[in-house]
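Entry 12.
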Amino acid sequence: MSSQSDSERALIVKERRELAEMPQEELDELASLYRRQGLSGDTARQVAEELTKHDALTAHLSAELHIDQNDVVNPWHAAAASAAAFTVGALLPLVAILLPPDAWRVPVTFLAVLLALTLTGLVSAQIGGSSRARAVLRLVVGGALALGVTYVAGLLLGASGAV
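Predicted 3D structure (tokens):
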């Protein structure tokens, strides 16, 4: 996250410098970007000029680099979100392994983890606007495979907890 944040900030500084040092070339570049998106030459030029008058840096960052200077990745926010997600995501499997009797711990934990992965897939698809089925399938299949490999490794090492 820090690298992404640094990269975005560097791109913003570079674009700001280019706008100050060669405004006409940057205006031409912006108009060209809009022409490539399907606008006629005259319309692309007019849009580029109007957006440049309003806020040239924002127009270039959006059209050229697809970034928003007010929404640069914050590594601390990402770390906090990851920590919260990890904690919440770990609660269901933790409860599943602590509460059932010994004989049921492994299957109940397996099901709890798959349920947690299903919920994670649903939430991530909702947030990202993607296919729920694909997100859930990807996480559940990957998680089931990881659980299976871990379980087999535990059996081989005599540490499965199933006995």
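Annotation: The chain has two domains: 2-65, 75-157. The chain has six helices and no strands.
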